[in-house]
Structure formats: structure tokens, C-alpha cells
Amino acid sequence: MLSSRTPRSLRFRSVAALTAPVLGAWCACASAQDFMSQEMIKPGNETFTLNLGGIVNQFNTKLKLNGDTREGSDVDLESAGLKSSLSSFEVSGTWRFLPRHRIDVQYFSAQRSGGRTLDSEITIRDQVFPIGATISTEAKDHFLLADYRYSFIKNDDLEVAGLLGFYGGQFKFHVRAETNRSEDTVDTTASSTVPLPLIGATVDWYVNPRWKIAGSLAGIKADLGHVDGKAVVATASTEYMLVRNLGVGLRYMYSDVDATIDRERFDGKVTWRMNSWSLYAKMMF
Q1: Residue 166: CATH number of its domain
Q2: DSSP letters along 39-68, please?
Q3: Which of 29, 190, 220, 234 has the most crowded CB, counting CB atoms within 10 A?
Q4: Shortest CA distance to 29 belongs to which of 246, 252, 255?
């Protein structure tokens, strides 16, 4: 696991180390004559793509847990001891089931834990904790982004599509706060799914049959009953096909989720912002 003090170059070498075995395995298992062919698939004519690699996330997270009689404080979880940067495995893929119609899916997860001594007063559930109290937090989170895309413009050089989808987050937090008095202790768990819809657009520029540059922007604010929030997701990526079916890609993603949750297992608010870099092997068919 990489700490926030790890140099950026070392974090990317770690992601590259996740990606390298994928490249080797596919090259070894595929039919050499077809898979390693230099005859490229025409841009926009692929049926399936599968991306496997690593993602480095930089987090900015706030959590509020309300009680029966008090409203909780917005607790900055990175200031409360959680790592601000973390690398993990990522998988994504696209199915182009008709020339102008695509379904895109992306999944990754993050698990962090840490603790510290408080330098300001906070409220968790119904308990107020003064300066000098200690807090420890564990966060386990899963992210699933899925969307449908229709290409309004599609030719050999450019593809512009509208997007309808959702940002699916599953957040689980375990928080323990205590003072030197045993009765002043809170040990609580909060968990919830946060499915927020997305509306946006994507652009794919096919520089040549091997090289693509792409970008997307999507977001919306919605009240879904137990979850009232907004999500904004922006991406920029570049991909290069080494041979017909195998290439490499680099993607940057910014995501901003702000959700107020009113459920039995989570009464409060979570604010989740991430700057993410992905390095992956791309298989295209």
C-alpha cells in the first residue's frame, strides 16, 4: 500500500507493475498470428474492449454522522488519519452492440484506515469530543460507473456521443472516538449505497488507427428519497494500440460526490472527491 508521502514516480511504477503481468498473459495465451497482427481494427468498428490495470486515487473526504438529538460535525477523514493517496486494481470495458450504441462499465475499490488525536472539537452521533480525544476510522468503498452512449457524430476521425448512466458508490465507515474516560466513547458503523444518475457527453478523436484521445463530462443533482446528492465526473484519456488487439492506455478522472443520506444504517452526509490516474492494458476485438 502506498502512503501519501510516496513519490509520484514510485506510485506510477507500482501501477505499471500491476499492468505488466496482464500484458504478458494475454500475449502468451492469444493466437500469435491474429492477436499480434499489424492490421488495425478500424476506429469505431470494435465490438468489445476490456481494460485491466491499476488506479492511483488522491482523496478528499468528509463524513457527517447525525445522532438522535444532535447533528454531527463534518469530519475531514484525511485529517483524521486516513491516507490521502492509494493505489488499487481497476477493470473497465465497453460493448458496442450497434455502430452508434455503446455500453461502458468501470469498477474499482478502495480500503483505508488510520487514526489521530483531535486538534478541534467534533460531534459524532450524539457525543461531543473535545481537543485531545482520539479518533480512528476505517473506510471500505466500492465504485461502479456505468453508462449508455449514443453517437450523434461518427466518422473515421471523430465520434461525439450523448451519455446516460449512473455513479454507484457503496460506502462503509467504522468510526471509534474516545477520551480518557471510558463512558465518553463512540464506536459506530455507517454504510450505504449511493446510486446517482449521470447525464453528459463524450468525445473520441481518432488521431490514426492506432492512437485515440478521448474526454467526457457528466453529472447531475438528484433527490432519490433516501439519498439527496450530486455527482460530477470528468475524464481525459489517451490510448495507443501496439498491435491489432492489444494496446496501452492512460486516463485521468476527476469525481465529486456530495450526498445527504437518510437511512437506518446511515444518517448523515458524505462528501467524496477524487483525482485518479489509471494505467492499463487494453484488449480490443
Answers
A1: 2.40.128.90
A2: SPPPTT--SEEEEEEEEEEEEEEEEEEB-S
A3: 190
A4: 246
Could you give the CA distance from residue 252 to residue 165 in angstroms, rounded to a whole number?
19
Contacts of 128 by beta carbon, 8 Å cutoff, 6+ apart: 70, 121, 122
- d(CA 285, CA 282) in angstroms, rounded, equals 10
pTM of the model: 0.83
Q: Is residue 80 part of a domain?
A: yes
The answer to whether the beta carbons of residues 137 and 80 sit under 8 Å apart is yes
- 142-to-90, 100, 106, 160, 180 alpha-carbon distances in Å: 11, 30, 11, 29, 35
221 lies in some domain: yes
Dihedral of the alpha carbons of 124, 130, 131, 136, in degrees to the nearest 10: -30
Count up the domains in the chain and report the number: 1
User: Digits of tens for pLDDT over the chain (285 positions)?
Assistant: 344 444 444 444 544 454 555 545 444 544 444 555 668 899 899 999 999 999 999 999 999 999 888 899 898 989 888 888 989 999 999 999 999 999 999 999 989 999 989 888 889 888 888 888 899 999 999 999 999 999 999 999 999 999 999 999 888 999 988 887 766 788 889 899 888 999 999 999 999 999 999 999 999 999 988 899 999 999 999 999 999 999 999 999 999 999 999 988 899 999 989 999 999 999 999
Show the domain range for 14.
8-284
